[in-house]
Design brief:
CATH class of the largest domain: Mainly Beta
Number of strands: 12
Largest sheet: 4 strands, antiparallel
Number of helices: 7
Radius of gyration: 19 Å
CATH architecture of the largest domain: Sandwich
Strand content: 15-25%
Number of domains: 2
Distance between the termini: 17 Å
Length: 223
């Protein structure tokens, strides 16, 4: 299901980005961001949604103790700030660039409404996408609240496996190619990077997986 949504998400970018729509092409421009630049802050006016042309974006918020809570790490083709479509007045999260060459397509809410009004099928896809994204976020928050660190890591890897895993015919292992750094993964599952490294090495010793910079190999019995 997640794999299907990945491709639908990319199609959303192709259909939605205003520079592809003649009516909006002349007045449209991409926005560039460097690493650690904020695209918006908590409490900012919620009057745009954003599509990622390239780069990575972190979505998160700060809890009552001032600690950062990471909700998602997004990459090329993905949509964020979508609660503006649902009537959100002010942001309840921040969005921050994680790359030096992040390029963002901003879309005003009124423009978005017009695009959705003119294409019922597209409108349905957008709302379905938002519903699916909320469901994934709810699942991640449940993991943070009710699961131990090792279980959170294994379930996060399982999710990656569904999204981007492919089978290796020679060994029967599953290869997961991903865009996350170890810091990204640690933030998403609510642990420190040293703890993540310890857990990954434990899973490696258990012959559960091997891990590399941008690849995880789930061994046959685990996959």
């Amino acid at each position: 299901m997640s794999a299907v949504w990945f491709f639908e998400d990319v199609n959303l970018f192709q259909m939605l980005c205003p520079h592809k729509v003649k009516t909006y092409k002349k007045e449209h421009a991409f926005l560039g961001y460097k690493k650690k630049d904020y695209i918006y802050f908590e409490e900012d006016s919620s009057n745009k949604i954003f599509l990622i042309e390239k780069g990575k974006v972190k979505i998160g918020y700060y809890n009552e103790d001032g600690e950062e809570v990471v909700k998602a790490i997004l990459s090329k083709g993905e949509l964020f700030g979508e609660k503006a479509i649902l009537g959100e007045g002010k942001r309840d999260e921040f969005a921050q660039s994680l790359d030096n060459t992040t390029s963002i397509c901003p879309i005003g809410v009124d423009t978005m409404y017009n695009l959705m009004k003119d294409n019922q099928s597209f409108s349905f896809k957008v709302y379905k996408f938002i519903g699916f994204k909320f469901k994934k976020l709810e699942r991640r928050l449940q993991l943070l609240l009710f699961k131990d660190a090792k279980t959170r890591l294994k379930e996060f890897i399982d999710e990656l496996c569904v999204d981007s895993g492919h089978s290796c015919k020679e060994t029967g292992d599953t290869i997961i190619t991903h865009h996350y750094t170890q810091s990204d993964i640690a933030s998403l599952i609510g642990i420190s990077r040293p703890t993540l490294n310890i857990l990954l090495n434990e899973l490696k010793e258990e012959n559960y997986l091997d891990f590399y910079r941008k690849e995880i190999r789930l061994h046959k019995k685990a996959a």
